[in-house]
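User: Hello! My lab partner asked me to get a predicted holo structure for this protein. The small molecule is 2-acetamido-2-deoxy-beta-D-glucopyranose, SMILES included with the sequence. Please write out the structure tokens.
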Amino acid sequence: MSTNEREREREMGESYESLFEAKQAKGRLAYKLFACSMLVGIYLIWFYRATHVPGWGEQGRWAWIGIFVAELWFGFYWIITQSVRWSPIYYCTHTEKLSQRDETEWPNVDIFVCTADPIAEPPTLVVSTVLSAMAYNYPPEKISVYLSDDAGSVLTFYGLWEASHFAKHWLPFCKKYNVEPRSPAAYFSKLCNPPDACNPTEWSSMKNLYEEMTDRIDSVVMLGKIPEELRANKGFSEWSSGMTSRNHPPIIQILIDGREQGSIDSDGNALPTLVYMAREKRPQHHHNFKAGAMNALIRASSEISNSPIILNMDCDMYSNNSESIRHALCFFLDEEKGHDIGFVQYPQVFHNITKNDLYDNSLNVITQLDHPGLDGWGGTIYIGTGCFHRREILCGRKYSKDYKEDWKRGAERKITRSACILEERVKSLLTCTYEHNTQWGQEIGLKYDCAVEDVITGLLIQCRGWKSVFINLQRKAFLGVAPTTLAESLVQHKRWSEGTLQIFLSKYCPFILGRGKIKLGLQMGYCVFGLWAPNSLPTLYYLVIPSLCLLKGISLFPKITSPWFVPFAYVTIGKHVHGLVESLQCGNTLAGWWNSQRMWILRRTTSFLYGIIATILKLLGISKMGFTITAKVSDGDASKRYEQEVMEFGSSSSMFVIIAAIAMLNLFCLVGGLRRLVVDGGIMDLGRLFIQILLCGLVVAIHLPIYEALFIRKDKGSLPLSVTFLSLGFATFASLLTMV
Ligand SMILES: *[C@@H]1O[C@H](CO)[C@@H](O)[C@H](O)[C@H]1NC(C)=O
Ligand SMILES: CC(=O)N[C@H]1CO[C@H](CO)[C@@H](O)[C@@H]1O
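Assistant: Hello! Below are the structure tokens for the protein in complex with 2-acetamido-2-deoxy-beta-D-glucopyranose.
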């Protein structure tokens, strides 16, 4: 149906009210002019480099050519990044219009929560997330919550079993007092006293109930096994001795069966369905990490609730906004513009970011600018958590013009067998061998063999013709825990950069796969992330070679009095001032911006370097993919340092040697370079070497916390002595080599 026809239909009296709107970002013309001027600056720099190469035999010829290559790369990458600034759109929803519609016709929603390790992700944390998902402001009989436990741990199952009882009190309490947030852990940790609206005795007894539950769960976790008397309860008998996280049969337990008449809360209202799932694990079968778990969830839920909408969230990302299902549905249920929307992505936001965000974890700029930028080209990326999908698109469905989901179909409850028979049926879908010789992990479900299964799955969905939208609510939909040490943050970025580069270098490269299917701007938008890792090499070059040349007195940049100085100054200042303004606009502090600049360097010299090496090794078939789960808990001293924004290096790693060596080398070069100016009477050199001195000085300034950790700090979070010696050794060696 063309737009004209639709309009006619509307004029003819069919009632239609749009459930969402898209707004263009303001000030785009000014930005585009600025970007063009930057491009001119970049061309001038390239031109200067190409026309001023030192001749054969002259000093610094190779250093010059190297820096030219680095600048070619930076310019190219900058052009790629313009895609996410060109025409951002911001979506807003009209839930009030949705609320006017008949509730019984709203679709069912399946919520998937994934956990993988009862130690790194303690059951109490998982349980709070699950409870926040059960308590959405949405008809409870339409919600089914599935917990996938990749560790197959009876401790996590016990936690969920406790939660299934606690929910009977928690859900009516949330409803009665309109509690926010609905994760009990988050709610009670913020309040010490009952809020005015609450009945104090009721509030206190709820708090006690919650604390007793967490105490029981914690003590079972401490013991490492469940008390014998529990084994009599349904479900616990699934666990037998000798089962490990890597070797166990499939387990599925329907803890609350929403279809049953008896499943009601303490006020007599319906409860959401609650299911525990652990797919089969055998050492000889590869399990495909989180993508494997998600695909098992898709199959298991298709037998039990088969809801047309699926939300997936990580176990450490609780729901902070009980309205977010309604907001997401505004996109899917919009009769006019909703047919081609495949998924709705919420941002990843963290609740434990400190004021100046030492590790630049907040993703503020990515959330507030990059994602809307991608939306401008018809689709944001799928980031693996906080995302609503249509079930059909996860099962490989292509978009076609006459596609129209019949939501009423999805609003009915499937009436099937009793829970026990259902569980037996579902088990057969969770075996290790079920997927053999099928399209699961390829055409169906989440894509396997990629460190960022989410990004590649989202890309494949868009290439099948679906659009996606990003929605950032004022009150954030999901809140998680950010890494609290440098090592964790770097490792996380290594995985991201490695995965996205792997996509770029495969047949799924956005420029190849997406050609003719998604817009060029979106193809480029994917490459902003896909080309993170290659940035490491030119950055390392820029951090090392100009400084060494400074030590030797070789100039690699135009004199301060030369007209060629202007493009260098314009591009550098333009880029950083613009970045600073954006950062402040997105809610970062000035110190936070400075910290993000440091992390920008540290990530490029370590995470991205390791990412590119790992990708190359994998391409050559030398190494295989691994997956590390970041711990979500830290000890007392470390927490204090985190609050005080003292850099916590965390588990010792070879990455720190690189960081420290670069810091030391630049310190040597700065001192050596300045000494040359002063002592050797080379003050005339100042104009010639000005840019290099400035660059080297800035590198030293940004690494101040590193020197502190190397030489001054003595606490447990700082750098070990071995790193100090190794980095000193490297830096001395490199400087001596340059001097001879
Ligand atoms: C999370 O929800 C609480 C309670 O409604 C609200 O006060 C807070 O601002 C929210 N947090 C974020 C980051 O939006
Ligand atoms: C500032 C802040 O909220 N810090 C918290 C981050 O998360 C850890 C672990 O959950 C808490 O212990 C901190 O208090």
